[in-house]
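Reviewers of the previous submission asked for a worked example of the structure-prediction workflow described in the proposal, so we include one complete record here. The input consisted solely of the amino acid sequence. No template or homolog information was supplied to the procedure at any stage.
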Amino acid sequence: MDVERSIDKIEIEADVDNNFDDAKVSFGDVEYYFQIKDFEVISLDDLVLSNGSVKIRGKIHKLSDAINILFFKRLDSSGQCNLI
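From that input alone, the workflow returned the following C-alpha cells.
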C-alpha cells in the first residue's frame, strides 16, 4: 500500500462539531476521526455507546458521522469480551 498517495489530508486538533478532534484523516471521500485518551487504566465497563455518542466514565463524547477511532493508553479487558 502506497500511503503517500492514499492519504489526501491529515488535520491535527481539527475544527469539527464532534469530540473526536485529535486527528482527522481523509482518504478520498472517506474520513476517519481519532480521539486519544490519556487514562492510566480504563476498562470496557467504563464505556457506553449510544445515540451518536460514547460515554467514558460518565462523560459524554459526541461521535462524528464518519468513522471514529478511540485510543487509550491502556484498556483492560478480559478474554471473554466483545470489542466495539
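Strands lie at 9-12, 23-27, 30-37, 42-43, 47-50, 53-56, 59-62, 67-72, 75-76. We consider this example representative of the routine output the project will generate in years two and three.
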